[in-house]
Amino acid sequence: MGTEEQGVQKNAAALAIAPATGKLGVMVVGLGAVATTMIAGVEAIRQGLAKPIGSLTQMGTIRLGKRADNTSPLIQDFVPLAKLKDVVFTGWDIFEDNVYESAAHAKVLDEKTLAQLKPYLETIKPLPAVFDQFYVKRLHGTHVKTGKNKLDLANQVRADIQNFRKTVDRVVMIWAASTEIFLEQTAVHQSIEAFEAGLEANDPGIAPSQIYAYAALSEGVPFANGAPNLTVDFPAMVELSKRNAAPICGKDFKTGQTLMKTILAPAFKARLLGVKGWFSTNILGNRDGEVLDDPQSFKTKEESKLGSLDYIFQPELYPDLYKDIFHKIRINYYPPRGDDKEAWDNIDIFGWLGYPMQIKVNFLCRDSILAAPIALDLVLFLDLAKRTPSLRSIGIQEWLSFYLKSPQSAPGLYPEHDLFIQSMKLKNTLRHIMGADLITHLGLEYYD
Ligand SMILES: NC(=O)c1ccc[n+]([C@@H]2O[C@H](COP(=O)([O-])OP(=O)(O)OC[C@H]3O[C@@H](n4cnc5c(N)ncnc54)[C@H](O)[C@@H]3O)[C@@H](O)[C@H]2O)c1
Q1: In angstroms, what is the span from residue 93 Cα to ligand 1's centroid?
Q2: Structure pTM?
Q3: Lowest mean pLDDT among 141-150, 296-305, 330-339
């Protein structure tokens, strides 16, 4: 294909994406530590008080063409993303605190920063939530909707979306609420019809997060899940997502320890270093830590965190290296640390002739500081997916696995956990939708 032809094709692909004109409405479920840190951060950036560190959509670049071309625009200049100035927030919570009060309670951002942002943050007041303590044992909600059954509650959330939609041009929803108890798929999750009957019959397999997600997808609104709950990862939701052109992705923000795991594990595998055991422990003192102190919510988190190593190491392909890894994860609620989580990893590895070695990782992180840019990027990329003809009706956006502890993939396909493959997949998807050449890193042409 000649350069001119390629040029024409590029324009056609890029032109097919609807522009990000007008306001993007972001509906956040749960206005706690992560959500308020994201919202306050976006406002601080809009006011020129801070930089969007950690956000690929705001600071990342993308290489186009050959290395010798030296063409690496900002991602936000390459794909038509909503601008931060056009983002409008609203949300739900089980407490009445406005975003300023909730951010002050979370104690992630300092008082001086919050005081500067107070006039704006005070204006965002939560809508009453869909909540049931059966699904989050440690919380007692006071600001909650009542309805005759779960379908009625879903319809109330749909009404909230419809009202908000009158004030903005497009809407995206993100779950940044507490981790629910561990639920497994049942018959009610297998089709849209079964799910809708289950809503009406108050099926116990339908948790509040599923009610919000059902409302969003029914309204054609993309949905991201920042927690490890069973929410959109079952056939009924995938079907609804495709039917209503409402993109979804995996779940559970990949922030601290799992981020490190999905960086280190691919390196061990690339160098064929074996692993005998991986012990991960955390102390965490925020409300998330308190919720995860309940064994049923912890189980949900544990399942999400455990998955990555098995998929990355592929023990069936490398039995001598990874067959019997002892993988253990602990989360301990320790209030003095608040949002400043501390994570320790002990990794027992082995090398040439089986000689053992150890690696220790001690990550003193800030949970919500790591999660906020992820939440923002997911929202902006899901809005892009909704405006992109080749993405909007495919359901699962596997290219967003980069951000998630539990990536979602097509039935029968294993999820991709390796951060570097995820990053390449994300950037190649952006090149693809813009009609640009994919980058394979072959590079032999430089040596012709
Ligand atoms: N911070 C991270 O690094 C990180 C990483 C991965 C996942 N997560 C997940 O993100 C979620 C949010 O974390 P956080 O630290 O902000 O927790 P948080 O406890 O500070 O905030 C959660 C908020 O959700 C509200 N809530 C609970 N159930 C609700 C419902 N049904 N509807 C509306 N609101 C509801 C709570 O009142 C609270 O304000 C948690 O599930 C956490 O496990 C966080």
Answers
A1: 10
A2: 0.94
A3: 296-305
